[in-house]
Predict the structure.
Amino acid sequence: MARKKSAIFKNAFLIILIIGGSWAVQNWMASEEIVEINGKRATIIDGDSFKAADEEFRIYGIDAPEYRQTCSDSNGTAWTCGKFARTGLEEMLRTGAWACTVRARDRFGRNIVICADENRRDLGSTLVRQGFAVSGLNFDEAIYASEEDQAKNVRKGIWRGAFVRPEVWRKQHPRGS
């Protein structure tokens, strides 16, 4: 009797393991973080960078909140603006066929890219205008200044409350700490 119960338990456990494994593989394969850029599968890292093959890419002229960064809404309630920025980039990249041109390499070896869709819509400009990022201070700050002003004036995205600019947040929260 004990052997029969043990066999039933083992079989049930095996079935659950197979179903769970199948579910995990299916969700991994259909991950929403994977998009296509320049005909290559790319994984979104955060609100201003992605990875394709073994190379990392950062969007020129913008700076998005870091993935773990939080902001405050107009009532002072914390919200996950870093995840918001990442989702914004992901959704934007899903809206069309984007082509990215490498402009330079940064000190971390990432390709700094300018991306445009089939309608010549600039990705960096759009992300800043939608409030997913700010005009970068580490690049040419003035590139997307008017788009930043537009988002700020209508309190869009990260501008709906208070936040620490991403470059300041990174100094306050160094990696590995």
Q: What stands out?
A: The first strand starts at residue 34 and ends at 37.
